[in-house]
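Explain this record to help learners:
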Amino acid sequence: MPIIRDVRTFISIPGARKLLAILFFYGIGTGILAPMNAVYLDESIGLSKEQIVAVFAVSLFCNVVITITVGWISDRLKNKKRLPLLAAILCMIGLFIYMNASGFRSALLGMTIAVAPSGLIMGQLFGMARNHFFRRAGDIVEMAQLWLRASFSVGFFMGLLLGANIFVLATFNGVLWGNMAGYACLAVLLLSYEETTDVPGAKPPANGEPFSLVMLVALLLLSCADAVRGLYLQLVVLKLFGKPEIMSYIWSTQAVFELLFMTLGGYWAARYGSKKIMFLAGCFALAAYLTYTRSSSLPVFFAVQPLYSFFVSILYGVAMGYVQRMFLSRTGFGASLYVFISQTASLIGYFLPLFVHGITPNIFFIPSALVALSLVIIGAVLYRERGASSRRSMDAAG
């Protein structure tokens, strides 16, 4: 079977296991804190809804600016490893300030220092990984990228479970120390990783994608919808069910499917086309958002997670590769552009629910509308491409 052959090839590549470990431990550190960040600001520091949005928005704005600026120049650097290593150290400093915050200003300062450099980590790690696998096994580059992203998701899943249990034993302070430990592991592993640098005169692979601003807008809309869910679902779950740790269990239910769905999604995208798979994933996301608006049953929230897991797998796996293939000769910029899109989407998505009074399931009508608009755009692109393909076939036959 091709998948077994590809997995064996992947594992046999020098450095592949270390890259897997880097993404895995980074995922653990991120997952420990992610579902409780807004809850920490709400319950432990006592910030209002508007202040929580401001903290997230300012830190993400700084993240967006740093990510795209450094991504633009990173391909001129011989060694990209220094960027995520420096970012990990800065994030740990920010987390130390954040965990000792006593009000809005100190929380804003700490989270900004903890979040702003983190865009360099994912973008540059995947830029490094694309160079690494292109030089050693160019035929499995896309699947290697997906498995690395899946490794992050598995680590994220482990972090969610750890975070929920750490919270029960050591409250939010333990959760924040767990997040810091994840960055420390990332820094140690990066120090021991031998980076593959660009070979002068090497030709990029041929299976690129044409640049499409319209498709980037569609991906921005999908990412905006996911950002709304990422911040507000944890607050809605807290209001409905009253226990912060429930969100960690809900997210872990989603994350456990991502390894399977990213692998399947990668092979389906290669066979049917990335845009068709992204369209299908958007339909699943729309079904999940509409379910959130109509149900207050905890079992239903868990049951809908596999659908949303497929959407997330495609959005952060197939879509990431799709954007990178638009810039095959600039791996650092292509990976950073994808992170820029997702972080810009988060920045926009955090503000949209302010138009809905309070924290209620009605917030999820906003991501529903965003996904619906994205589906219209992707559908129009697919329809136009199908028409162009038919005309070319008729011309060839004539």
About this structure: The chain has a mean pLDDT of 81. DSSP finds 16 helices and no strands in the chain.
